[in-house]
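Pipeline run #58 for the internal structure catalog. This entry was flagged by the ingest filter as a single-chain record with no existing model, so it goes straight to prediction. Upstream metadata was stripped on purpose; only the residue string is passed forward. Reviewer on rotation: M.T. Logging verbosity set to normal.
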Amino acid sequence: NGSNWTPIINGLGSELIESMAISETHMYAGTNNGGIYLSIDKGNSWAALNTGIPKQPVNSLVTDGANIYVGVSGGEGIYLSNDHGNNWRPANNGLTHKYVRALILNGTNLFSGTLYNGGIFISNNNGDNWAPSNKGISDLGIISLTLNGSNFYAGINTGGFQSSNDYGANWAPV
């Protein structure tokens, strides 16, 4: 019910957690110091999963169960693992702006929000290819992304939100 909280940091040390994702029994944490950690025992212990991923802040994490996507700041872009984080590879083809702040999944579509006037990018093939989707966005500095049904929302750098009700094809201020 949320009235009591217990720290679960065994194996995390003093890492600042920037992002989290859960898929069945796998809990992932992305840190400000550029690490990915996995817990398979509900957070009681954590193990680093950093083979092939740059040491940059992990601002966003999403998973569909089979794949884990990590948005890395520092101009490194998006990394993909399809083996529960044991190995990572870049997934940046067409992602012309690689300061990734936010990721969301909607079915087979993956959305990336980037900082510093990069805007929003969409992939419909597991991050293999990306295309910009910024029609109508007033500020291309994207801080956060979320969705509610078929409505998408982007938090922008200058404050406020933009929304799309056509899967990111067009955006308008809220």
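catalog note: The mean pLDDT is 87.
catalog note: The CA atoms of residues 17 and 31 lie 5 Å apart.
status: ready for reviewer M.T.
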